[in-house]
């Protein structure tokens, strides 16, 4: 089969890790008899430099012409925090999510067997294993609400960001979570702040409605502050964790850290119709960009997620995951991970090792 993949290489270490992911995809293509056709899409800080805005016209259109999108990373200190949205790399990320309708962000946090020692939690906690799927609502809430800044009479300037959630938006992300749980260990933990926020109270009402419908799935409500604590106390208790945009942004970084390295974790962002977008959850890491130091595994595992979810190529996805595990089991690692110095490798070598296992 032939599949079209849009590549957003982006900024910092983005291009380096995407390059390795593409090598792995090509190895899979050769082994399983597929053809992957790539289209480069300019977006992020590099697009500001090249054409004056981070999200050039036609970006979404080009992506829609492909079957899936693979993104490296965008952003970096070079572009600062301009007040002009066109000059902010983050604008591109938020815009593409919105324009492609990618409302469901799946961020798995898995402690890979070879890396149990890298888990910063107590040994007995790590031994229980960590295998959770964070399902973050990605196109609603306070990141997309009305922003304002105005003068008050007695308190100087005031700023406000509106957090709004509708039934439709909550229900569709909730369904994703319950459907996913059915394919896993059949447990959904819904995270909110219903003791304070009205959006959370509506969120909870709708999740309860869904829990009644998906009665084969175990369900619990968890307050966001408690969830942050439980993630470091006993992460093994979680299967699918579903939450709104900002809570998910924060908790998914926390969840990634307990698995040993943020350089290992992939993610998928999907909607109902348009191509889904796959990206490592680490950022552009400008401090190590261009030095062959970045860990390409998160990008490579993102490519595996793409094969599984967008192309329904489960065997191919598993082949990549097994190749990664085999390389890690031999002790090979990049600088972000712990290990013996004689097994420390760079970005390119790590990509080669994984390809060789395929
Ligand atoms: C992420 C990032 C983005 C987000 C930023 C860069 C806009 O932190 O993907 O988690 O908050 O969604
Ligand atoms: Mg984030």
Could you give a short description of this structure?
The chain has helices spanning 14-32, 45-51, 59-64, 89-99, 123-127, 167-182, 198-213, 224-233, 245-257, 297-309, 314-329, 347-357, and strands spanning 2-10, 35-40, 68-73, 104-110, 131-137, 147-151, 157-161, 187-192, 218-223, 240-243, 266-270, 276-280.
Characteristics:
single chain, alpha/beta, Isopropylmalate Dehydrogenase, two-stranded antiparallel sheet, 40% helix, globular
Structure description:
This protein is α/β, with parallel strands linked by helices and 358 residues long. It folds into 2 domains: 1-106 and 263-358, 3-Layer(aba) Sandwich (Isopropylmalate Dehydrogenase), CATH 3.40.718; 120-258, 3-Layer(aba) Sandwich (Isopropylmalate Dehydrogenase), CATH 3.40.718.10. It is built from 12 helices and 12 strands. It has helices spanning 14-32, 45-51, 59-64, 89-99, 123-127, 167-182, 198-213, 224-233, 245-257, 297-309, 314-329, 347-357; strands at residues 2-10, 35-40, 68-73, 104-110, 131-137, 147-151, 157-161, 187-192, 218-223, 240-243, 266-270, 276-280. The protein has a 10-stranded mixed β-sheet, sandwiched between helices. A two-stranded antiparallel ribbon has the order 6-7. A hairpin with a 5-residue loop joins strand 11 (266-270) and strand 12 (276-280). The longest helix has 19 residues, at 14-32. The radius of gyration is 20 Å and the shape is globular. It starts with a strand and ends with a helix. The site of magnesium ion (MG) has 2 residues, from helix 9. Magnesium ion is lined by residues 249, 253.
């Amino acid at each position: 089969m032939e599949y079209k993949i849009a590549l957003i290489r982006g900024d910092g270490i983005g291009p380096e890790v995407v390059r390795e992911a593409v090598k792995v995809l090509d190895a899979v293509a050769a082994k399983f008899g597929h053809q992957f056709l790539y289209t480069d899409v300019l977006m992020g800080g590099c697009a500001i430099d090249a054409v004056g805005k981070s999200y050039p016209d036609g970006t979404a259109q080009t992506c829609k012409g492909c079957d899936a999108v693979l993104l490296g990373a965008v952003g970096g200190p070079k572009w600062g925090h301009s007040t002009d949205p066109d000059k902010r790399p983050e604008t591109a990320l938020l815009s593409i999510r919105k324009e492609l309708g990618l409302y469901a962000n799946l961020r798995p946090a898995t402690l890979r067997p070879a890396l149990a020692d890298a888990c910063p939690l107590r040994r007995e906690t790590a031994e229980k294993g960590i295998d959770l799927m964070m399902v973050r609502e990605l196109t609603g809430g306070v990141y997309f609400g009305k922003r304002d800044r105005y003068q008050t009479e007695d308190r100087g300037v005031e700023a406000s960001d509106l957090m709004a959630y509708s039934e439709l938006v909550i229900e569709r992300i909730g369904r994703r979570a319950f459907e996913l749980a059915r394919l896993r260990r059949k447990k959904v933990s819904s995270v909110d702040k219903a003791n304070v926020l009205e959006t959370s109270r509506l969120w909870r009402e709708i999740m309860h409605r869904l829990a009644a419908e998906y009665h084969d799935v175990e369900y619990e409500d968890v307050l966001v502050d408690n969830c942050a604590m439980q993630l470091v106390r006993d992460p093994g208790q979680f299967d699918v964790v579903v939450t709104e945009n900002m809570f998910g942004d924060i908790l998914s970084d926390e969840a990634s850290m307990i698995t040993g390295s943020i350089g290992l974790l992939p993610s998928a962002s999907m909607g109902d119709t348009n191509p889904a977008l796959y990206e490592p959850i680490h950022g552009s890491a400008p401090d190590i960009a261009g030095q062959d130091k970045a860990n390409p595994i998160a990008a490579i595992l993102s490519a595996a997620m793409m094969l599984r979810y967008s192309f329904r190529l489960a065997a191919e996805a598993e082949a990549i995951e097994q190749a990664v595990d085999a390389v890690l089991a031999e002790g090979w690692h990049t600088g972000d991970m712990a290990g013996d110095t004689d097994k420390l490798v760079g970005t390119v070598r790590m990509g080669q090792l994984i390809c060789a296992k395929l």
